[in-house]
Amino acid sequence: MFRLLYRALVPLALVLAFVLNGASVRKAATASPVRQSAFVRRWMRTLTLREKVAQLIYIPFHGAAPNSRSREYRQFVKLIRDTRVGGLVLVNWNNGRLTQKAQPYAAGAFLNRMQRLARVALLVAGDFERGASMRVDGTTVFPQAMAFGAAGDPSLTRFEGQVTAREARAVGVQWIFFPVADVNNNPDNPIINIRSYGEDPKQVAAHVTAFIEGTRADPHYRVLTTAKHFPGHGDTAVDTHMNMAVINASRERMDSVELVPFRAAIQAGVDSIMSAHIAVPALAPADVPATLSPAILTGLLRGEMGFKGIVVTDALDMGGISKGYNSGEAAVLALEAGADALVMPPDPEAAIKAVLAAVESHRITRARIDESVARLLAAKERTGLDRRRAVDLEAIGDEIAAPEDEERAQQIAERAVTLAKNDGNAVPLRAPAKTCFLTLAESRASSEGLEFGQEVHRREKGAQVFSLDASMPAPSLDAVVQKTAECESFVVAAFASVAAYRGDVALGGEFPGMLDALFASGKPVVLVALGNPYMVRSFPKAAAFLLTFSTVPLSETAAVKALFGEIPIRGHLPVSIPGVAKIGDGLELPAAAPVP
Question: pLDDT tens digit string along 218-228?
Answer without folding.
Answer: 999 999 999 99
